[in-house]
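Hi R.,

Here's the chain you asked about this morning:
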Amino acid sequence: MIEKDVMELRARVAKLERTLELVVHQLGVRLPVDPPVLGVSTRVLGLARAGDKIGAIKAYREETGVDLAVAKRVIDELG
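And the predicted structure, written out as tokens:
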């Protein structure tokens, strides 16, 4: 039961993060990037820090479901 609750909470948090990213993008607001807040995983962060921006953007989109423009902005802010 606890595992199911955790999974549901993670899904809700991911949805809220995606919604916030879309709202921020639509408003044209630039927020300081804080990987845990923006939902950047260690995998994505590692790719970005290694200079693999395309890989980081692709991985971020796969993990979060955001569009290309939002993912690019997030990754550009990381590096």
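The radius of gyration is 13 Å.

Let me know if you need anything else.
M.
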